[in-house]
Amino acid sequence: MATLYMNFMSQPARACVLFCRINCLKVEECHINVTAGQTRSQDFRKINPLGKIPCLKVGDFVLSESAAIMRYLAQVNQVPAHWYPRDPQERARVNSALDWYHGSLRLPAIMLTWYVIGQTMQPTIKLISVTEGSAKRQLAVLKDTLKMMEGFYLADRKFVAGDKISIADLLYSCELDEMQLLDGVEQLPMFGNLLEPFPKVRAWMIRVAETTEPHWTAVTATLQKVVKHGRERRQQMLISKL
Amino acid sequence: MTTLYIDMMSQPSRACVIFCRVNNLNVEEKVVNIAKGGTRSDEYRQMNPLGKLPCLQESDFILPESASILRYIATTKGTPDHWYPRDPQQCAKVNSALDWYHGNVRLHAAGLSWHRVIGKNMKQPVSEGQAKAHMTGLQTTLQTLEQYWLAHSPFLAGNDISVADLLYCCELDQLCLLDGAEQGPTMTELFKPFPKTQEWMVRVAESTEPHWTTVSSFLHKVAQRGKERKLKASQAKL
């Protein structure tokens, strides 16, 4: 039995959960509470010394890193080939998108996520602190990434690595979806405004969600609740200033 | 014909070049000079809109991103299995290392080199605050290399060298430029607390000779010049 250690507020963990559920894989989901410090506990560190989620365990074999996890699951299970194509050039395009993700999308998005958490939550453990200056810098990086997605990755393709959905689309869309959290702080633009100049990116996000229903709605439900609270909080703050 | 666009001052370019030369592959190397704006030219951007190096081309097929280039070459050119294993769990270990590289090794090593040396030399905006943040990140990365990735095996993914080892070592080797930075630490000082990591870097270099030395020679010349400049500057102050 394979176990996936995950949390619905973790972008890469959501991508892995989606992949498993869509393909009906025999993978048990084990929820780990990050903000309560569970990834730093001795019990979890015994399983994954890197102390990160998502993490896959199959017997003695432990695997970190969401992209590596999805590649592995695609290789050892009978899933439709489009998720991680067998043709070397098609596969290379998916790999290239998966690589570009780390520096261009993951980095700015996770820094912005930590910034929002720092501004809006009172976490019980010490999390990574991000200054407003750093957040604004990462916002600029994110805008450049969206421009590249609009003008290159999605310029003449339905999905980031071709005309069929792949594991790269799951990772990208879960990461970008988390940026709805920006709606919770006044110092940052609303998610809708951020995406406004990028019609192809917007259309692609809807396309990924529709292609992965009903799992997309189920897996993003927790995030949506948090986003809703954030939006209400921002509205209340604006009203209180009138 | 397979063409690899590279710059010998680019860490991931060097990894791809060493991989091709070690395996005697029929791959054409085309140098693009980053410092002289080669990656910003219309010609280059038309071929690779991402505007980065390295980049692989096989007629109409264009492939950016070094880790993907290494995987693609290993898969299609019949290189020995240990570079990028066919066994799913072994392959997954290499993939996991290749993924972890971006946000940990690449981010902090390249970030530190940029803010302390390269960016300064190119008169680009740099920040000592960001350099310090990358220093902290790099120290955590080296600790993780020492206590996790290399704790129980001679190479990142097990007993044999893989493409991940090449990518990591070329990135870390770039830190030799720190020896010419205004403030410390030097590369030797930085790596002093991490003996397993030091041994592994020597092991990777030895496993890929004579190509390791040839391909890194330009970088080492630049680093040596930096060290000499720093020495002259400190002597002038005496």
Strands, helices and their partners?
The complex is a heterodimer of chains A (242) and B (238).
Chain A: E1 2-6, H1 11-22, E2 27-31, H2 42-47, E3 55-58, E4 61-64, H3 66-76, H4 88-120, H5 132-153, H6 167-177, H7 191-195, H8 199-211, H9 215-219, H10 221-240
Parallel strand pairs in A: 1-2
Antiparallel strand pairs in A: 1-3, 3-4
Chain B: E1 2-6, H1 11-22, E2 27-31, H2 42-47, E3 55-58, E4 61-64, H3 66-76, H4 88-121, H5 128-149, H6 163-173, H7 187-191, H8 195-207, H9 211-237
Parallel strand pairs in B: 1-2
Antiparallel strand pairs in B: 1-3, 3-4
Q: Enumerate how many helices of chain A there are, as a single number.
A: 10
The separation of the N and C termini of chain A measures 57 Å
Query: Main interface pair?
Result: A-B, 31 and 30 residues
Q: Identify the strand order in the major beta sheet of chain B.
A: 2-1-3-4
- Helical amount of chain B: 55-70%
Order of helices and strands of chain B: EHEHEEHHHHHHH
Structural class of chain A: alpha+beta
Largest sheet of chain A: 4 strands, mixed
Q: Rg of chain B to the nearest angstrom?
A: 18 Å
Our Rg estimate of chain A from Cα atoms comes to 18 Å
Mean pLDDT of chain B: 96
Low-confidence stretches of chain B: none
